[in-house]
Description:
The structure holds 2 protein chains of 2 kinds. Chain A is mainly α. Helices cover 71% and strands 1% of the residues of chain A.
Amino acid sequence: MSGTARGWSLAAGLTVAGAVAVWLATASLxxxxxxxxxxxxxxxxxxxxxxLANGLTGLFSLGHPAFMMVGGYVAAxxxxxxxxKGFMLPDLPDWLxxxxxxxxxxxxxxxxxxxxxxVIVGFPVLRLRGHYLAVATLGLIFILRAVVxxxxxxxxxxxxxxxxxxxxxxxxxxxxxxxxxxVCWRVKQSSLGRTMMAMRENEMAxxxxxxxxxxxxxxxxxxxxILAGIAGGLWAHLVTNLTPTSLGVFLAFQIVVMIxxxxxxxxxxxxxxxxxxxxxxxxxxxxxxxxxxxGLTQIVVALVLIGVLIFRSQGLFGSREPAFLQGKAVPSLxxxxxxxxxxxxxxxxxx
Amino acid sequence: MSDYLLQQLANGLILGSxxxxxxxxxxxxxxxVRLINFAHGDIAMIGAFTALAALMAADLPIIVVxxxxxxxxxxxGLAIEAVAFRPLRGAPQVNGFITSLAVSVLxxxxxxxxxxxxxxxxxxxxxxxQPIAGLPITVDLVDVLIVxxxxxxxxxxxxxxxxxxxxxxxxATAENLDVARLMGINVNRAIMAAFxxxxxxxxxxxxxxxxxxxxxxxxxxxxxxxKAFVAAVIGGVGSIPGAMLGGYLxxxxxxxxxxxxxxxxxxxRDAFVFGTLILVLLVLPNGLLGRAxxxxx
Lengths: 351, 297
C-alpha cells in the first residue's frame, strides 16, 4: 500500500475481502452480534485516527471522546425527525429545526464540526507538552460535558437525545473504517507523516530541519478529530441515544490502551488491537454478568496494559507496519528506543 | 463583608484544604520522578473507605482513624510505586502516565468489584457535626478540624522536607536524580518517601471529603484528583509551597465561582476549573512558584 502497484492491489484485495466478510456476517449473524461487530469497527476508527496524534506525532491527547461528542451531537441533531424537534429541542432556530438529513451528510457535518472545534481548541492547547496536554485534553471532555448539559434547548441537557434514528449498520461502519485506515496510512507514508515522526523523535531537531511544528501538530490533531467526530456520529446512530456522560474518560482510556497495545504509531497495530480488545471485552461481559463481578473487564485490561508497558513497551508492532503490507518501496524507520538518557534528565521538561 | 461572602470564603477554605493535601502529593512525586500520577486521586478514595471501615467495623476513636488512614495511604502509595512505577523508571514519560491511568482504572474497578458502585454514607461521631456557636456563619466542628489538621500536616511536611536528612535527600533527588545518586544518596528511598508521604496526605484528604460531604463511592477520587492536579499546576508543579497555595486558590475560586455568579452558571463548575488549567498553562506555564524547565536538544 505504499504507492507501488503491488501495494495498491493488496489494498484493494484486502478491502474486497473485508467486504465479503461483512456481507457474510450480515447474511448469517443475528442483530446482537452485528451490533457488537459494529462497535468493534467504531473502535478501529477511533484507535487508528488517534494514532496520528498520539502515535505518530507524539502528542498525547485524551480528548477523542470530546470530539466524538461534538460530531455525535451535530449529526444526531441533523438526522433527528423534524416533526419531533419542535418540542424536544425548542431553542433550535427554525431553519435548523426544519432539516432532516440523511446519514452521510450528517456524519460529514459532524466531522467538520469536530475538526473546527479541534482547530479552535488546538491553538491554545497544542502549545502544551506531555502530561499537560494529556490533562488539558481530558479537561476538554469535562468542559464539553458542561456545555452540552447547559445548552439544554439544543441538546436536552442531562436527559440526552433519545430516539435517534438507528441509521448506522455494519456497512456504514466498515466503509468509514476503510476510509480512516486509508487516510491515516497515506498520511503516514507521505512527507507529512515523516514530518510527524520526526517531531515525535526530537522536536528541536525537527524544527532545525525546517519542520513547521505548530502547523503539523494542528494537522495531526484536526485530522484525528474529524475522524473521531464521524465515529461519534456513527456511534450515536448505532446506540440511538446520546447523553453528556455517554462518552467519557473510560472511553479515552480504552482508546489509549488500543494504541499502546498495537504499538504507538502502527496503524495495523491500532486496528488489530481495537478488534482484539473489543472481542475480549465482549467475551468477558457475560462472565461479569453471571458472576456478578462487575468491573472485571476493566481490571483485566488495566493489568494487561501495565504488563505491556513494563515488559514490551513497543506493543505488538512498535511504530511499524507488518512487512507484507509495507510493499518494499519505503525503507522502514529505526525502532523507537524505549529508554533514552534524556528522559531521566531532571532538568528537562516533558518530552 | 456580608455573611454570605464570609460563608463562601469559609467553604472555599475547606475545599481548598483538601485540594492542597492532594496537590502536594502530585507535586512531590512529579518533582522527584517527573511523573504525573493519575491514580493519586484514587488513593484519596481508598483513604475514605479506610475511614469508613475503621469507624463502622471497629468503632475506633477518631485519632486512631486518622492515623490508620495515614498509614494505609502511605502503604498503598508504596505498593503502587513498587509494582507499577519502579519497573518503568527511565522509560519515556508517556509510558509513566499511561501506566498511572491504568492504575487509576484498576483501583476504581477493584473498588466497584469489592464494594459496588453504590455510594455509601459515612457515619462520623455526632460531636463532629456540631455547629460552632457564636459565629455569623455556619461552620461545624468538623470543618474547623479539617482546616486545622490540613495546616498541621503541611507544617509537619515542611519540617520533614526542610529539617531532616531524608528531606534533604528528597530535595537533592528532585534537583538532579543522577547527581544525587553520585553523591551517595539512596535515591530509591527518597522516591519511596515521596510516594509514601504524598499518598498519606491524599488518603487524609479522602477522609476529610467523607467527613464533610457524608457520601463516598469508588469513583469519588478521580475528578477531585484531576482538580487537585490543576491546583498543583496553578502553584507550579514540583513546588510544595506552590501546591498548597494552588490548592487554596483553586478551592476559593471554585466556590466563589459557584457562589457569586447567577445560578445558571453553576453547571459550568468543572468547565471553569479545566478552563483555568488551560489558561494558567498558557499564561504562566511554570505556575506561581514553579521553576522554569529548560528545553534542550
